[in-house]
Amino acid sequence: MQSLWMVAASLLFACMGVCVKLGSAQFAAAELVFWRGFIATLIIGSYVLLRRRSLATPHARTHVVRGLSGFVSLVMFFYAISMIPLAAAVTLNYTSPLFLALLLMLWLKEPVRRGFYGTLAAGFVGVILLLQPTLARDQWLGALFGLGSGIISSIAYFNVRRLGELGEPEWRTVFYFSAMSALGGLPWLLLANPFHAIDLRGGLLLLGVGGFGALAQLCMTAAYKRGKTLVSASLAYSTVVFSSAFGILLWDESLPWSGWLGVALIVASGVLATALSGRTNTQAVTD
Predict the structure, then answer these.
(1) What is this structure's pTM?
(2) CA dist., res. 126 & res. 66, Å (int)
(3) Are 128 and 262 in contact (CB under 8 A)?
(4) Per-residue pLDDT tens for 91-126?
(5) Helices 86-93 and 140-165 meet at what angle, rounded to 10?
(6) CA of 79: how far to CAs of 10, 63, 269, in Å?
(7) Does residue 160 contact residue 107 with C-beta atoms inside 8 Å?
(8) DSSP 111
(9) Where exactly are the structural domains of the chain?
(10) Using CA atoms, how far apart are residues 183 and 192, in angstroms rounded to an integer?
C-alpha cells in the first residue's frame, strides 16, 4: 500500500508540472506559486477547521525559514519548468538530497558512511552530463533555476527535518509553507502588467497546479506514514519517469543519451544519499 500511495504522489506531482508548463505561457512563475499555495492553504485550512486543530506553534522561526526557502525554491522550479524540458527541470530539482547530505555533513557534522563521497561525486557528474551538452545555450538560465531550486530545497528539507524532531505535525508544516507561498506570490499577482485575467483554460490550469500539488502532498504523507522512509524516498523519483513521459508525449521533448545517463546518475545518487545520510521523514517538503 505504501508503494501505491508514493507512486500516486509522484504521478500527481508530474501532473502539476504539466499544468505549470502549460500555464507558464499565460502566467508568471510567481503567480503560479501563489495559486499553488493558495489552493493548498484552502484544502489544509478546511481540514484544520473540520478537525478543530490548532495552528499555534512555538517554532515560528523554523517555519518562517522553511517557508521562505520553500517559496524561493518553488519559484525557481516553476521558472525552470517553463524554460527547459520537463524531465530536465524535475531532475535538477531532485538534486536536493545530494545538497541536503552535504548540509548535514558540513553543518551538523553527521558521520560520513562508506561510499558517501563516491555517491555525491556520481550525482554531480550526472548534473554535468545533464547540463552539457544536453541543453542549448539559450536554456542555461532555466538550468540554473532548476539547479538553484534543488540547492535551496535542501534548506527546506533541513528545516522540515528539524520541525519533525521538534514534534510538529506534518499538516501544520504544510499549511504554513502553503500560506507563505501564497503570500510571497501575491505581489506578483497584483502587480502583473498587464493583469492576467483568468479564462476557463487558465482557471483549469491553476486549479491543476494547486489541486494536483496538494493531493500529491497528502498521498506522499500517507506513504511515509505507512512504511519505511527509504522506500518512499526512492519511489519519489518516479516523478522523473512520469515527467519524462509527459514531456515526450505532449511536447516531443527528448534528451540525448548523455542526458538520460545524467538523469540516471542523479536518481541513483539521490537514493543512495538518502540511505547513507539516514535522515528522518521529510514528507512535507516536496514542492
Answers:
(1) 0.89
(2) 27
(3) yes
(4) 999 998 888 888 878 877 777 677 878 988 999 999
(5) 40
(6) 20, 24, 25
(7) no
(8) P
(9) 2-277
(10) 15
